[in-house]
Amino acid sequence: MAHLGRSILLGAIVLIALLLLSIVYGTTNIPVRDVVAAIGLGTGLIDGDMSPLHRIVFDLRLPRALFAAVIGAGLGVVGVVLQTTTRNDLADPFLFGLSSGAAAGAVLVITVTGDVLGIWTLPLAAFCGGLIASGIVLALVQGLRTSAPEKLILAGLAVSFLFSAITNYLIFSGDNRAAHSVIFWMLGGLGLARWETFPLVLTGLALILSYALYRSRWLDALLTGDFTASSLGIPVQGLRFSMFFVAALATASFVSVAGVIGFVGLMVPHIARGIAGTLHRNLLITSAIVGAILLTMSDILSRLLLAPQELPVGIVTTSIGSLFVFLYLFKSARGD
Question: What global pTM score does this model have?
Answer without folding.
Answer: 0.87
